[in-house]
C-alpha cells in the first residue's frame, strides 16, 4: 500500500530537522496582543458574528477569568503568557476566492511543501479539505459534491452565518464553556475551525479532512470543531497538523465536539506533527486540546490518533456513552523524542446499558522525553452489562526517557466487565540481533519493530493517513538508538 | 473546637507525661509543626481522591485513656492465633498489658516502644531508624507527634526467630470516642528471619480510630513475613502506614486481609535499596454494608535486578466501596526490574463501587513491568454447573469466591493463620464450609 520507499526515507532522515519548518511570508491581519473583553468583541466583530455568538463568547470569558491553570498533568513547561498572544490573525488576501487561481501564490507554495496539492488531493485521494491556515479557512474543496447529499462541511465561522440554528443547538453541549481552563479560553476567543453536519441516514461518501497549521509568529491557534452526525449517518473525519519551526512556544488550545445521534457513527482520525522543539528542547508547540464526543443510542465514536509532534501534548479524546448499546473506541500512538512531553489518554464514561469501549494506547518514548498515559473508565450504576477493555503498552528507547501510566477505573455496577492491562518494555536485543543477522541494519530494525508495535493502531487509520503516520514514526525516532 | 486545635492542646498534656529531654521528643515537636502545616488529608489531594476521612475527624476523640483497664485472657483469646506458641505484645487502649504479653530480651529484643524510647541502651538504634523511613504527611506527622507506645522488635544477625510475633491492639470502649497512635519499629539484621501477625481489634461498639505507623528495616538477606488481619467492628476505623526498606537479597512480604472496619486505609510503601530484593504485597478484601477499604501501595525500585509482586483480590457486596491505588516507581538506575501488579475485583451488588488506579512510573528502559486490573462477576455457567450437581447457590457462590481469593491464601506460610483466614472468609460469606478441601 505504501508508495514510500526506503531511499525516500533515507533522504528524509538526512534532513530530518523539522522538514515542515518554514515560514510563509504573507501579510497578515493581526490584532494587537492581549486578552480582554474588548479583544473578544473585536474578534466577534471582525467575523461579523450575530449577537448570541458574542454573548456566548463573553459568557465563556467571564468563566475563564475565574479559573486557574490546572497543574495536575505530568508535564513541566513555562506557562504561556496569555496576555502576550495575539488572538486573531488572518491571511490578508481576503475575502474568499472563487477559484484556486486567485489564491495567494505563496500560500499555494506552502500547501505544496506540506504535500497537500489541492488539485492532486481532488483527483487522487478524493478528499475534501477545509484548510485552516492561521485561524481562517481559505480553501474548501468538494463542497458541492457534499452539498448534493445535504452534508454541510464548512468553516465554523461560515456555519454561524449560514446555519445558526444548528450551531446554536449543538455548540458547547459536549464541551461546555466552563469545562476546563483551556476549553473556556477557546470558547471565548476561538477564531475558526470546521463545522460538519451529516443529515439523517447519509453515509458521507468521502473522508472529510482538515489541515491545521500555525503560521504567524506569536499567535495562538484556537480552533473549534463541531461534527454532528444525525440519526443513522456515517462520517470519517481526518485532521492533520503541521506547524512551522519557531523558537518561542506557541499555544494551541482547540476544542473538538462530536455528536453521534441514534445509530450514527463518527470516525475521527488525527495525525499530529507539530513542531516538537529542537534537540535541546527549545521551542515547540503546546498542544492543550479538549476533544470529546457523545453517543446516543446504538451510536459509535472512534478516535484514532498518532501523536508525534508538539513540545507538550495534553489531550484526552473522550467518549460519553450516553445511549444504550453505544460504542466508544480509542486507538492511540504517542511518540516522544528529545525533550518532548506527552500526557495523553482517554475517558470512557459509560452511562447507557450494554455500552462497550475499547482503549488501545501505545506509547513510545525516546531521548529525554516523558510519555504518560492517563485514562478514565467510569461505569455508572445504570450502565448494566457495560464492557471495557484497555491495553496500554509502552516502549522505552534509551535510558533517559520515562513512561508512565495513570489509569483510573471507577466502577459501580455489578454486571459490568472491565479489563485493564499495561506493559512496559524495551526493544529486545534478541529482536535486533535477529534482524541484523538477516542483513537489516539496526536503524531499520528499530523502525520495523516500532511499526509492528504500533500496527494495531496504524491499521485503524484511513489508508492515506496510515502511510503518512508510518513515515512520521520513523522520522520521529531517527537517531534515538544508542 | 476543631480537631486541629484539640490536637494542639492535647500535645501540652502529652508533654507532662513523657520525658521531654531526648531525641524522640525533639522529633515530636517537629512532627507537630508538620501536622499543623499539612493537616488532615483532603479529597482534593490525589492520594485521597476516593477516600474521604471527613466522617472520621469530626469527632471529639480522647487521645489518652483516662484509666488503665485490664481484661482477661478468656475475653481476647478468640482474637489471638492461640493454637500456636508465639511471642505476644498486647496493648489495651494503647497501654501495654504485661500479663497478657510474652516478650523477650534473650537473643533479640521483642519488647515495647516506650522502653526503647526511654532506655539509653537503645538510643543508637532509635536515632538511626526511628522515623527515618516514614514519609511526611499530615497523618504520619500526627502519629510521630503523639506516638509513645507500640512494638519494638530488633533482631540481630543470623537469627531465625523460632515462633511468630503477634502484635495486637485492643480498644475497650471505655471512652466514647478514642483515637490511638500506635507506632511499631522492626529492625531485622543480616540473614535473619521473622514472622509478624498484626491486628487491631475493638471490643465495644464505641467509635475507635487508629492511626498506626510501622517502619520495617530488612538488612541483607533478611526475610520478613507480615500478616495484617483486619476484621474489626464496624464502629472502628484504621489508617495504617507501613514502610519497608530492603537491602540486598532481602525479602519482605506483607499480606493484608481486610474483612472488617468502617473505613480502612492501608498505605504500604516499599523502598528497595539494594540489589536482588523481592517485595511481595498481597491482599484479600471481602466487605459489604457501608464498609470502605482503600489499599494504596507504593513500590519504589531504586536498585537494579529486583522484583516486586503485588496481588490484590477483592469482593464487594451491598454498598461497599473499594479503592486500589497501586504505584510502581522505577528509577533510572533500576535496570532489569521485574515488577508485577495484579488487581482483580468482583462486584456482587449494583450499589457497590470499586475505584482502581494502577500506576506505573518508569524511568529505566531495561525493565519488565506489567499490571493488570479486572472488574467482573462470578461466572454464571460455573454457578449453574455446581447447582446442577446439588450444591446450593449460596455455597456455590462462596466456593467460587474462595477459589478467586485462593491464589493469595496459598502464599500464607503459617498454617494456623491460613485456617483462621479461611474460617473468617466462610463466616463473611455466610457459609459453613471448611474450604480446606
UniProtKB/TrEMBL annotation, chain A:
It comes from the Bacteria. Belongs to the iron-sulfur cluster assembly SufBD family. One of its GO terms (biological process) is iron-sulfur cluster assembly. Residues 129-204 form the SUF system FeS cluster assembly SufBD N-terminal domain. Residues 212-453 form the SUF system FeS cluster assembly SufBD core domain. Pfam families: SUFBD_core (PF01458), SufBD_N (PF19295). This is Iron-regulated ABC transporter membrane component SufB. InterPro entries: Fe-S_cluster_assembly_SufBD (IPR055346), SUF_FeS_clus_asmbl_SufB (IPR010231), SUF_FeS_clus_asmbl_SufBD_core (IPR000825), SUF_FeS_clus_asmbl_SufBD_sf (IPR037284), SufBD_N (IPR045595).
From TrEMBL, chain B:
Coiled coil: none annotated. Residues 21-167 form the SUF system FeS cluster assembly SufBD N-terminal domain. InterPro entries: Fe-S_cluster_assembly_SufBD (IPR055346), SUF_FeS_clus_asmbl_SufBD_core (IPR000825), SUF_FeS_clus_asmbl_SufBD_sf (IPR037284), SUF_FeS_clus_asmbl_SufD (IPR011542), SufBD_N (IPR045595). GO terms for biological process: iron-sulfur cluster assembly. Residues 174-404 form the SUF system FeS cluster assembly SufBD core domain. It holds the Pfam family SufBD_N. NCBIfam families: sufD. PANTHER family: PROTEIN ABCI7, CHLOROPLASTIC. Belongs to the iron-sulfur cluster assembly SufBD family. This is Iron-regulated ABC transporter permease protein SufD. It comes from Nonlabens xylanidelens.
